Amino acid sequence: MEWAMAETLKQPKFMKKAQVELAEIIGKGILIEEADVSRLPYLQCIIKETLRMHPSVPLLLPRRTEQDVELCDYIIPKGSQVLVNVWAIGRDSTFWDDPLVFKPERICPGFPLALRMVSVILGSLLNSFNWKLEADIEPKDLDMEEKFGITLGKAHPLRAIPFSL
């Protein structure tokens, strides 16, 4: 809470934008309730950006590697204790443009909507059709290779055939 207030006070344009959203959706000066939160995407962006820059727990709980792991040209031997520095990740220019700059707009406010839409679409597809693979492919032989990039996609597109229930 303190960090979010500090960031919006440091850059009043973000406070103003959140206040405009609150006034339009909730009404000026009205206390918000938990049920209102999902209707306030910009406020959620401010909170998530605050947590990126100022995580309440900068180091995650220690873990032990179950096998030797190669990561960024380093070998982490089996049984090593590993700590994830969330604070450093949130400030790493490898992952973030201008990582030391508070930018609520960098957080995708559409993620909760996207998650709901994927549920609606996938549920509708599964509920409306049976699906099968192309004739020459067995389920055990389905290519599950990943293609790494900005998003993680299938290396080879899925070809599925719908048929009536």
UniProtKB/TrEMBL annotation:
Highest taxon of the lineage: Eukaryota
Record GO terms (molecular function): heme binding; iron ion binding; monooxygenase activity; oxidoreductase activity, acting on paired donors, with incorporation or reduction of molecular oxygen
Name of protein: Cytochrome P450
UniProt source species: Solanum bulbocastanum
Location (main, coarse): membrane
Signal peptide coordinates: none
GO (cellular component) term, any one: membrane
Record flagged with keyword Thylakoid: no
Keyword Transmembrane: yes
Xref: Pfam families: p450 (PF00067)
Keywords: Heme, Iron, Membrane, Metal-binding, Monooxygenase, Oxidoreductase, Transmembrane, Transmembrane helix
Organism classification: Eukaryota, Viridiplantae, Streptophyta, Embryophyta, Tracheophyta
Family, similarity comment: Belongs to the cytochrome P450 family.
Localisation: Membrane
